[in-house]
Amino acid sequence: MTPLPIALSCGEPAGVGLELAEKAWQALRDELAFFLIADPFHLPGGVPVILLTDPAEATAAMPKGLPVLPMAFDGNAVPGAPDSDNASAIMDAIALGTSLAMQGKVSALCTAPIHKKALKDGAGFGFPGHTEYLAHLAGVENVVMMLASEQLKVVPATIHISLSDVPKVLTPQLLRDTVHITARGLQDQFGIENPRIAIAGLNPHAGEGGAMGMEELDWINETITQLIQEGYDLIGPLPADTMFHTAARSKYDAAIAMYHDQALIPIKTLDFDKGVNVTLGLPFIRTSPDHGTAFDIAGQGIANPSSLVEALKMAARMARSKAGV
Hints:
The chain is an alpha/beta fold. The chain has helices at residues 17-28, 58-61, 87-102, 116-123, 130-138, 166-169, 172-190, 215-229, 246-249, 260-270, 306-323, and strands spanning 6-9, 34-38, 49-51, 66-70, 108-111, 144-148, 153-156, 196-200, 233-238, 254-257, 276-280, 286-289.
């Protein structure tokens, strides 16, 4: 087990997060220590629960039951029916997990999925998603979202914006920041001393010499060349349609894509159930399952825990790598 437990924030209690937390405990009880930050009255009740007064108690509690650091929520937890009265407590659970991580009381923070509309309706949540909220809580300006599995690690340079806005938001400085944060994260949290990074082109066939778009010629090629001269091990810009097959993936440790779907389609095709969302650039380790609240199947006991299990296992590996053990 890791020296310090992993904090798992509950996310939206009307989704699948709580039942997946119980299944993750069953799968990992002998492998690593984590605890859930949640209202224990919201739990489905499928496993024994050990209430904690301090995160340090989680490791000893783990073999006996699901460790829970209790928080009181104002609303109900009806599967598939989010209650906006829970919004403030959901955000508080994330904030508590962040605080514990920044204080060094946990080895990592793993977050169950949230429902942004319920948070906005109930507590005026003003962030595009988890990643931006965590950056705000940590006082960090620039972070990147990595989707990771055993087969592929990929980072979208732009995330939750319309496709028409991508060329406006994508700038040389954004690409530079993305490369820097990705390379540092691969070194510090994945133990890759000299990371090799592939960069996708923005346009089809990476612009094909200007025939299908000019961004590559205007600035992407030059920015990548400058970064290589600064010591980064980069290849690109590469046509996105030929850089994710098996032979191509063997030539790099992570890929940077230019927009959301360019990054997420390949990893979800390769490893839909085990993809993990990792936030790089935070002063602590953060992972999350790569799926949403799944209201349509919540409460039915059929949700697949694989992604949450992998998110917790990856957080533990990253913590060991960061600690040099």
